[in-house]
Task: inverse folding
């Protein structure tokens, strides 16, 4: 995990310089792992295959200087997609009103997994979520994983505006 944070810190300036934001960096697989980099367009538009190629090319130059992981690996650059992971406070803010699945490290009110409508962020930087029977506040630093749920509303917003953020 520490290595991925280090890697994200190294590649973020390169990706931002060409007009994109890093959404997530993950290492998947075993013997020949895949280094997955998910990105967004900074202008809020949908990311294209050409955009992914541009990012991959830029990252290859960075990785020529310093290998991201030891041994053979594959690099995968992709869009975060419609039912994207939510990894940053701005993801929760820009997707207020949409349904998400959120898992936390420590139980809150006796549970670790939540599914509800994102209501936004509190002044303290925590996530407000409306569940079926109550509202909860989830500490941002305790979030293990969070992902939008593919719903008709999310699809309609994406089709209408090019992305849920407009």
Result:
């Amino acid at each position: 995990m520490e290595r991925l944070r280090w890697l994200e810190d190294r590649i973020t300036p390169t990706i931002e310089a060409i007009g994109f934001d890093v959404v997530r960096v993950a290492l998947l697989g075993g013997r020949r792992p895949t280094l997955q980099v998910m990105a967004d367009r900074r202008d809020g538009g949908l990311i294209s295959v050409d955009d992914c190629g541009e990012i991959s090319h830029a990252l290859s130059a960075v990785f020529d200087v310093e290998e991201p992981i030891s041994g053979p690996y594959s690099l995968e650059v992709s869009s975060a997609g419609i039912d994207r992971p939510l990894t940053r406070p701005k993801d929760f803010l820009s997707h207020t009103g949409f349904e998400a699945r959120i898992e936390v490290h420590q139980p809150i009110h006796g549970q670790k997994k939540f599914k509800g409508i994102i209501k936004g962020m509190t002044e303290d930087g925590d996530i407000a979520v409306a569940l079926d029977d109550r509202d909860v506040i989830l500490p941002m630093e305790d979030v293990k994983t969070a992902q939008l749920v593919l719903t008709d509303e999310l699809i309609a917003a994406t089709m209408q505006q090019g992305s849920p953020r407009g």
User: Anything to note?
Assistant: The first helix runs from residue 2 to 17. The chain has two domains: 2-79, 89-161. The longest strand covers residues 111-121. The beta strands are 20-28, 34-41, 74-79, 99-108, 111-121, 127-130, 135-138, 143-148.
